Amino acid sequence: MSPPMSQTPSGRHPMTGNLMTDEAAVEGHGFEEHEYDVVVVGAGGAGLRAAIAANDAGARTAIVCKSLLGKAHTVMAEGGIAAAMGNVYADDNWQVHFRDTMRGGKMLNNWRMAQLHAQEAPERVLELEEWGALFDRTGDGLISQRDFGGHRFARLAHVGDRTGLEMIRTLQQRAVALGIDVFMECTITEVFKDSGRVSGAFGYWRDTGRFIVFKTPSVVLATGGIGKSYQITSNSWEYTGDGHALALRTGASLINMEFVQFHPTGMVWPPSVRGILVTESVRGDGGVLRNSEGNRFMFDYIPEYFKAETADTEDEADRWYDDKTNNRRPPELLPRDEVARAINTEIKADRGSPHGGVFLDIASRRDAEFIQRRLPSMYHQFKELADVDITAEPMEIGPTCHYVMGGVEVDADTGASRVEGLYAAGEVAGGMHGSNRLGGNSLSDLLVFGRRAGLNAAYYAERSRARRPKFTDAQVKAASVDAVAPFSAEGEENPYTIQHDLQDIMQRLVGIIRKSEELAESLVEIRALKERAKNLAVEGNRQYNPGWHLALDLANMLVVSECIAKAALERQESRGGHTRDDFPGPDPMWGGLNLVLTLAGDDQVELKHQPLPVLPDELQRLFEAQQ
Ligand SMILES: Cc1cc2nc3c(=O)[nH]c(=O)nc-3n(C[C@H](O)[C@H](O)[C@H](O)COP(=O)(O)OP(=O)(O)OC[C@H]3O[C@@H](n4cnc5c(N)ncnc54)[C@H](O)[C@@H]3O)c2cc1C
Predict the structure, then answer these.
(1) Is the CB–ligand 1 distance for residue 43 below 6 Å?
(2) What is the pLDDT of residue 326?
(3) Is 283 noted as a catalytic residue in this protein?
(4) Is residue 40 in contact with ligand 1, taking CB distance under 6 Å?
(5) Number of H helices, E strands in the chain
(6) If I label 173, which of 86, 295, 345, 623 is the partner at 20 to 30 A Cα–Cα?
(7) Of these residues, 146, 174, 244, 283, which one is catalytic?
(8) Can you tell me the mean pLDDT for 591-600?
């Protein structure tokens, strides 16, 4: 049977073509069923790159995604793809990129992932170009590279401030041209196992609510992040932590979940657009941060760790934009965790802007033609959403939940999780970025590790050909009963109310600055929400029913939020995207530890300490040589 690019299918019996009744679907006899070697869950950069790699390795591959193809979160990426191509600065190379990434992550990164990422990113960017991506060029025709925080050299390959769109367009066209099957607007709710090995995946079509089952030995999770657990976020509706939760329920582990990146610059006004991202490129291209007194306050927040490489006067900082040879960068381009904390402090000290942010000013520093050419989306975003002309006046901005460093614990080389047949890549995977991600390092991460996960999932499928795992009718029936449970619940809880309450808890108690008492309180409150969620009831039927979709997503958001809060309470230090008011500095003891989360019976989150893999001497020397 040929599945579906255009996706209205579903609801039809695969053999007879007859429309299935709800009862038939729930009874488990009329399921739409498909068989593949590799099923990739997610069609962002990581999922598409994984699917292309799996297909190239000879695996029958499907992509399943809960939104339309081309609509994944990756499309929103603005600034660029970090890769040490050396096009703008010949001195750039993988060793410098590796070192920047590790320092940005405060040395908590999985060093092997950071190494592979830095080594392979340039090749992956060139490959995108070969497949049709049109990057901005330097004067001599090479791929242009822009500055971003924490990167020693300008190294982000970009297409204006619409890089994600070009990346998705290119990968999507390639995947479609290769004939990879795509199931879009289809949500996966469960991964099946047979004797500890992945045997399939279960989901539903969002339009009809009908169930669908994939028989497969390899599942690649590429589902992105968790931002919808917070009130103020740059993330889209899709970021409900599905892949994180699927991994936990399948028996895999999560690491680094306490590290959530609050991007320093999200819109703050009007309320309807609060949280929408203002790209770091604005600062990379000369924008500066000021408080209500007009002070360029970032000079007051340069941490000891970055003093040697950060300009400490306005003159020196401004000279850097024209002559970057001195390498002392403006403090606005410190890593995101540093800038977000500084903004937060200014706002709390009553030096904020009228709507609770601070000012980001590029208007007084660059002419209108430059701004419109380099930052066209930002220009339109502010003009249309906030009636602000960024070529003439400053923007009001404030921190917004943007990215989760934590995710599925994977083998660096293969993307394999602890569960045989289960792989993860992209934002849903943990380890690569340590405690804080540098801007631009996500898009390159998607390409490098998407490819690796896809390839290895395909190799595994091939190895398992003689002994394919199977799922049972009982597993399918149980998954469908769980999925429709909210329709028959007696309770009166509304999914939107629970989501609202969860976002409030996470924003208030597990936000940028954290405290022991508040984190402990958040855990009590999240567990109370989990209890309330048992009484969730939804009305209507399964045909396009957003309330039902949210009810299913909520279970994921709740367990992932619990993981974040639990790990944040445990880690008694401040590092990267985890700032503790009661433990303000980094602590070497915690700097050697990962916190690993698993799920025990009865939906209990368990946490263990795990020593970090030791950095080999030859990589350690890179830090000594370049201090
Ligand atoms: C506004 C913005 C700008 C950014 N700019 C940059 C930048 O310039 N450079 C950079 O490096 N990073 C940037 N980032 C971060 C980067 O875009 C993301 O980290 C990255 O795109 C994540 O890609 P992904 O492939 O992991 O997930 P996504 O692109 O989010 O794809 C996830 C996919 O999983 C699917 N999915 C989720 N759950 C399910 C389920 N249960 N069943 C089926 N499908 C499911 C979704 O439908 C989607 O197709 C930016 C982020 C934002 C929000």
Answers:
(1) yes
(2) 66
(3) yes
(4) no
(5) 18, 22
(6) 86
(7) 283
(8) 97
Q: In this structure, is residue 131 part of a structural domain?
A: yes
- Within a domain: 405: no
CA distance 143 to 129: 9
- The pLDDT tens digits for 203-259 are 999 999 999 999 999 999 999 999 999 999 999 989 999 999 999 999 999 999 999
pLDDT band at 611 (very low <50, low <70, confident <90, very high): very high
pLDDT at 99: 97
Domain boundary among 400, 419, 441: 400
Q: Which of 160, 177, 200 is the last residue of a domain?
A: 160
Q: Is the pLDDT of residue 28 over 80?
A: no
Q: Are residues 592 and 498 part of one domain?
A: yes
Mutate to test the pocket of ligand 1, among 7, 64, 71, 74 (most ligand atoms within 8 A of CB): 74
Q: Is 576 in the pocket of ligand 1 (CB under 6 A)?
A: no
* Ligand 1 pocket residue status of 442, Cβ below 6 Å: yes
Using CA positions, which residue lies closest to atom 13 of ligand 1? 77
Distance in angstroms (rounded) separating the CA atoms of residues 414 and 407: 15
Q: What is the pLDDT of residue 492?
A: 86
Minimum CA distance residue for ligand 1 atom 9: 440
Task: Check whether residue 382 and residue 488 sit in a common domain.
Answer: no
Work out which ligand 1 atom sits closest to the CA atom of 48. Answer: 25
What single letter denotes the amino acid at residue 286? G
**Inter-residue contact 242 to 268 (CB < 8 Å):** no
Exposed (0-12), middle (13-18) or buried (19+): which is 415, by Cβ within 10 Å?
Answer: buried
263 given a catalytic annotation? yes
Does any ligand 1 atom lie closer than 6 A to the CB of residue 163?
yes
H or E stretch including 214? strand 211-215
| Protein residue with least CA distance to atom 27, ligand 1 | 224
Residue 324 inside a domain? The answer is yes
User: What's the CA-to-centroid distance between 235 and ligand 1, angstroms?
Assistant: 8
162 C-alpha to ligand 1 centroid (Å): 14
Q: How many domains is the chain partitioned into structurally?
A: 3
d(CA 254, CA 244): 7
Instruction: Enter the pTM of the model.
Output: 0.91
47 Cα nearest atom in ligand 1: 25
Mean pLDDT of the chain, nearest integer: 92
pLDDT at site 337: 86
Confidence grade of residue 624 (pLDDT, cut at 50, 70, 90): confident
Q: Which domain holds residue 96?
A: 81-160
Atom of ligand 1 nearest to the CA of 425: 26
Q: How far is the CA of 442 from the centre of ligand 1 (A)?
A: 9
- Report the C-alpha gap between 182 and 51 in whole angstroms: 10
Q: Are residues 484 and 381 in the same domain?
A: no
Residue 378 sits in a domain of what CATH number? 3.90.700.10
Ligand 1 centroid distance, CA of 72 (Å): 6
Query: 212 CB under 6 A from ligand 1?
Result: no
Is 210 within the bounds of a domain?
A: no
Residue carrying the six token digits 């991007």: 263
* pLDDT tens per residue across span 536-591: 999 999 999 999 999 999 999 999 999 999 999 999 999 999 999 999 999 999 99
**Tokens of residue 198, six digits:** 């992945």
**DSSP characters over 140-192:** TSSBPEE--TT-SS--EE-STT-HHHHHHHHHHHHHHHTT-EEEESEEEEEEE
Same domain, yes or no: 280 and 154: no
Q: For residue 586, what is the domain's CATH number?
A: 1.20.58.100
Residues contacting 198, CB < 8 A, separation 6+:
191, 192, 216, 217, 218, 219, 250, 419, 420, 421, 422, 469
